[in-house]
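Narrative of activities, Objective 1.

The group set out to show that a structural description can be obtained from nothing but a protein's sequence at a throughput compatible with the screening campaign. Below is one input-output pair from the validation batch, recorded exactly as produced.
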Amino acid sequence: MPGGRVFGGQVLGQSIVAASRTLPEDRFPHSLHGYFLRPGDVRKPLTFAVDRIHDGRSFSRRRIQAFQDGEPIFSGIASFQDEDPGFEHQLPMPEVPEPEQLDGPAAIVADRPEASLIIRANPIEVRHVESDIYLSVDEKSPRQAVWTRLRRPIGDDPMLHRAAIAYLTDFTIQETVLRAHGVAWATPGMRTASLDHAIWWHRPARADEWLLYVQESPSARGGRGLAQGQLYTRDGRLVATVAQEIMLRVPDLA
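Output recorded for this entry:
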């Protein structure tokens, strides 16, 4: 991330991988709730500690903490479950253009080289259904939708794909808070930080195939903004639900 910070999604994904290594292969994560405590430094290694809180017949809970220099930078609890039968329903996926109908990275950075690093040199590919907000905001709105995926295949391990989906969910979720107030990422002096993150996995999916990430911000106040999102596969299956609160400071409002 800019300034040498560790991307929060990386910590989320690695936390799930660390916790999963204390469990049988057929028990998958269904929820994670965590707090980002300090910014991580990309120049330093991360150490993950996992506590076995509970193991039941169908559910297991694990506490995960990520450390740098002996200080925790992330703390969370994840819950894992066997595949069990039960009721099933979901909200339908909204109708939006297909990702192939939207501008890819080459078109976006063609006349904006200053946006090249965050768009082209990124393992996450994003295509905005609305216009992007890298340099400016065309229309204020607390809602947006993006197609997203990893740029390269990562194999067939379903646990790895759930961890990678957690990784993806932290990349654009903040944008609904910014978009609601007409604030672009390039705003001079703006500072943002993820405060917490929650994700519920509903159904298996691949992180290296297109997922529609439908997002909204129901509230912002006191230098904080709340964002929520749902991820769908191209055929309309609801994969995950996400919630995150961020710290947002803009010089004109300080």
